[in-house]
Amino acid sequence: MKKIVVLTGAGMSVESGLTTFRDAGGLWDNYPVERVATHEGWEANPNYVNDFYNMLRVKYKDVQPCEGHKLLAEMEKDYDVTIVTQNVDALHEAAGSSKIIHLHGEMMKMCSSNDVDNPRYHVTLPHEGFGETGLEVPHDTKAGDGSLLRPYIVFFGEAVPNMYDAAAVAQTADIFVIIGTSLNVYPAAGLVQYVKPGTPIYLIDPKPVAAKTDVQHLMCGASEGVKKLMEILSNG
User: Fold this and answer.
1) pTM reported for the whole predicted model
2) Nearest residue to 181 via CA among 234, 231, 227, 225
3) Which residue, 31, 70, 147, 234, has fewest beta-carbon neighbours within 10 Å?
4) How many CB atoms lie within 10 A of CB 140?
5) Rounded distance, CA 118 to CA 232, Å?
6) How many CB atoms lie within 10 A of CB 94?
7) pLDDT tens digits for 27-57?
8) What is the DSSP track for 172-199?
9) Which one is catalytic: 69, 92, 102, 104?
10) Residue 38's beta-bridge partner residues?
11) Is 104 noted as a catalytic residue in this protein?
């Protein structure tokens, strides 16, 4: 069974109704990055940071996977598929994909602010006692080690703990697919460098993308692009 590794970015979830962070009108236009997505912002005002992610989780809770998410899960019938995602939503999980590596964290998890990557102190939401929906984490809620619970999000300037695993799986790809990312966000954009020479690389994005390697660009949205990819692979 051929191994397909799929790198997904914000454009993957646009069809589900989620706003991208970087594009015009995105979340960074309304919420300063330095206040909600940096360690310094967290230390300066953890309540403000938690309120921001509380708002996002409530907004995300009714969002459904798009057809593209579902088709990627369906591809597991014929291929060994691993999803490497820059997205913090849980839409790949909701669609049924079974192998997912999250590079930038997970919106529906909280963690220790002293020991971020220790799963012993991770809390998965919704959680009994947290707000009306179980998604709104009260201020001053403590992790198991006594530190403040913080969003399980890789803040700007922090290391990407799952990058090693993502690079390792990229090396095993028989087919590498990139969906909905500008290839400008590092270190994720550097994953292409780990793909074996001669491996087919497909890029699905409706916009022109400056790729530093040889790719077949399907210039369309995620759902249409995954459909086209499946047709190409079935005929190949």
Assistant:
1) 0.91
2) 225
3) 234
4) 10
5) 41
6) 15
7) 555 678 889 999 999 999 999 999 999 988 9
8) T-SEEEEES--S-STTGGGGGGGSPTT-
9) 104
10) 156
11) yes
